[in-house]
Amino acid sequence: MARRNRRRQLPQDPVTVTIESLSHDGRGIARIEGKTIFIDGALTGETVQFLYTKKHSKFDEGKTISVANPADDRVEAKCQHFGLCGGCSLMHMSPEAQLTLKQNTLMEQMSHFGKVVPQEWLAPLTGPLWGYRRKARLGVKHVPKKERVLVGFREKGTPYLALLEQCEVLDPRVGSRLADLGEMIGTLAAYNRIAQIEVAMDDEHVALVFRNLDALSDADQQILIRFGQDNNFLIYLQSGGPDTVTAILPLAPQLSYSPEPGLTLNFEPNDFTQVNAGINQKMIQKAMGLLDISAQDRILDLFCGLGNFSLPMAKRANEVVGVEGDAALVRHAQSNAALNKLDNAVFEQADLTKTTLKEYPWAKAGFNKILLDPPRSGAFEVLPQLAELGAERIVYVSCNPATLARDAGELVNELGYTLLSAGIMDMFPHTSHVESIAVFVKA
After folding, report:
1. H/E run at residue 59
2. Residue 57, exposed/middle/buried by CB under 10 A (0-12, 13-18, 19+)?
3. How far is it, in rounded angstroms, from Cα 393 to Cα 396?
4. Active-site annotation holds for 399
5. Active-site residue, from 88, 167, 304, 399
6. End-to-end Cα spacing for the chain
7. Which of 34, 231, 367, 386 sits most deeply, having the most CB atoms within 10 A of its CB?
């Protein structure tokens, strides 16, 4: 009842404001009587009409319903679902303006959280703007009022699935088939017991992992198999945790990708891989260039996954040790090293938030170079150990500019490193997600 009362208190009439600037997530910022309002779909300098969507004690939120004087950076959104779907937030901005926003975000975070400025800002790494996404988790929901099964992403600001016909940033092998997927699931006896679909693709294959809350009948499994055969999809079921993922078409499928020519990395559909294959290849080459790898180097790759950076580096260095907390990824990395006949790449399992690295035999000899690719939480806990290992150069790949900035501040202001350069990589066009890279040297 209290929630409904708060909703009734929202002003119902459109309000006109001028947008002063953009937030890091791409929302327009305006002020009314000193109170800040974050407005979806608005750009700097525009005069817009908006409707309130939420009110808070210190700020409010709204959505644009009309624009009186469009900014030069405004473009027509390519996706018919933009504004409804919560997957993309920047599709009304030109690609150049999106890059500027992301670069400014990294610069501001470095200055604010890290109190550091690199000696050089790197040019952005860019790639395809559309159909680039090869990994996704699609929600599935039977909606009786709509008399159909919805497949896709949540509506912006709500827990409900949006009614989507297609997704412009998802690889079109799946992005153009969302309605077909929903229609097929609607023919299952268990049409309301499929919770989600994990999507993973390589150059040649599309894997769909159906999260089934109940065991599926033979008839339902045959419907999934026929759908896979008709559309050249690999079909998996997942009845519980990650270890329950089971292929039903074919019985022994294999996904793989090439981080660079001459290397093949096998992976499972639920393994972590980068969503943007084109940017991933450029990112690997950029990271190796910034590390300045030589044949004498002993390199430590922390948060190494299944060898995305480790194995390309092993082709150039004396030895690479990859460390990862996920035991399954470590096994896959070891298999990939054997597959590519790289016996100078060693992979170990360790919880990098709690580990003392020098306690391990593989760390006692030290490392002169280190690559980090941590999760969004960053690598703060392990940073003090990096200098102890003898690292003269560190390359840090980040999916969160705030934690990169925090960690950069620690490396520079406390641990004696110099921040040579930093820049963004546009891994997720049309979203506010900022992927970045930085290189540090021992001062």
Report:
1. strand 59-67
2. exposed
3. 10
4. yes
5. 399
6. 60
7. 367
Domains of the chain: 2-74 (2.40.50.140), 100-128+276-442 (3.40.50.150), 135-254 (2.40.50.1070)
Tokens 């620690």 sit on residue: 410
The predicted model scores a pTM of 0.94
Phi, psi dihedrals of residue 65, rounded to the nearest 5°? -115, -20
Structure tokens at 288: 């190796």
Rg of the Cα atoms in the chain: 24
Q: What are phi and psi of 294, to 5 degrees?
A: -125, 170
pLDDT in tens, 311-361: 999 999 999 999 999 999 999 999 999 999 999 999 999 998 887 898 899
Dihedral Cα 209, 139, 402, 273, nearest 10 deg? 20
- Amino acid present at 422: A
- Going by the DSSP 8-state scheme, the letter that residue 131 receives in this structure is S
Segment 234-259 mean pLDDT = 96
Q: Work out the number of other CB atoms within 10 angstroms of the CB of residue 184.
A: 20
Unique residue bearing structure tokens 């939120």: 61
- In the predicted model, what is the mean pLDDT of residues 53-66? 95
